[in-house]
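Please produce the structure of this protein holding pyridoxal-5'-phosphate.
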Amino acid sequence: METPLADRPPANAADIPSLDRLLNAPAIAPLLARYGRTQVIATLRAHLDELRQAALAGTLQQARLTEEVIATALAATLADASRLRLRPVFNLTGTVLHTNLGRALLPDEAVRAVVQAMTAPVNLELDLSSGKRGDRDSLVAELLGELTGAEAATVVNNNAAAVLLMLKTLADRREVVVSRGELIEIGGSFRLPDIMRQAGAKLVEVGTTNRTHLADYTQAIGGRTALLMKVHTSNYVITGFTQSVSIAELAALGRTHGLTVAVDLGSGSLLDLTGWHLPKEPTVRETIAAGADLVSFSADKLLGGPQAGLLVGRADLIAKLRKNPLKRALRVDKLTLAALEAVLMLYRAPEFLAERLTTLRLLTRAPGAMQAQAVRLCPIVQQAVGDAYEVTGVTLSSQIGSGALPVGRLPSYGLAVRPVKGKRASLDRLDATWRALPRPVIGRIAEKTLWLDLRCLEEPDEAAFAAQWRERPP
Ligand SMILES: *Cc1c(COP(=O)(O)O)cnc(C)c1O
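Below is the modeled complex.
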């Protein structure tokens, strides 16, 4: 009678099949077909090395040496190495525009436009009416004008790039006057004073942290002044005894002195969000109407589009920005423009925007829908985490995020996962396990609780979310 493989004595290095034999083994053939010889050989070599080490240590079981077992181990290693590092996650942080999770999600219209631009030649820089060379900016400039009331527009890689281009073009070796209350730092190391330095502009701070008056700007104006600048304090608020100068007042001062007034609006909403019962955020149109000469803002924050920095304003100034060689270095690709145009197009029908624009749809989700989801998902998550944790449905307040409406909170629903006293439970471990799921679940730990805010889990994703728990209880 044959001894079962597992019960045999440890194998020797000499029992390990050769690389050549394995490469010709039927069990390895599908791996070769899928991953190619180079990857399979490299992975196989590493695996055989491991087996040799085990043989030397006297711990190599015969069972590990069959072609099928080796093929299975190899398949797992190759599959793991081939998983994309950039992968979908479930954003249950409660922050809709989460910079670390990629900010705005694109609507279907934009996704279709991007796929088309990726897979077919496009008129990126070809004027179809004249047949001559075109300008990629012109694909969206008109639409941006229509939506903001600005004369002209240009597009760069992100808002930080937009501010850099603006300062470098208009204020190199000259002075820019900014209120001390607006010297912002945005997460991911955008600090206004640093950008100024990079652009060669000299920052002239005026006023105090909480109060800046028109006279402060007036007194700072001199022969080297290039710009009067306002920066939207998009991730903090100063309350109490405060005073700031409005864009209209600053614009009037700029006109008196023949100075350009530039505004970094940060999130830059194209429409007044109070129409959807969201907190007030200044719109680009209002800012232009108030007299700003140039306004910069992000396309992937409240606007709900792809990552880009948009600059709108006076045609002569936009023309200067476009001529700067830096613009060439900061330009956006066709995929960004494809997505941006499709998203901007949606703004032409504001009455459907809360349905069609993903960001706005998430920001305006009906509380009842989230509450019902919490009721449905509570037992599923409870079952998955076991009795060491207690899962309950809770009311939460979500954030818009990404430097938009820092103090505005949206009433929301979710789940609270808390360790049960006396059980071996660890929120950090649970959180780590969830991050290791095929589609990682990203929640938020605070107050000894792991919070799962359901605002960003729309119904189509809910099924996938629930299925993952059922398939692989953590
Ligand atoms: C977000 C933000 C920026 C940076 O924009 P990015 O698009 O992330 O480069 C700059 N200024 C303000 C006021 C912002 O809110």
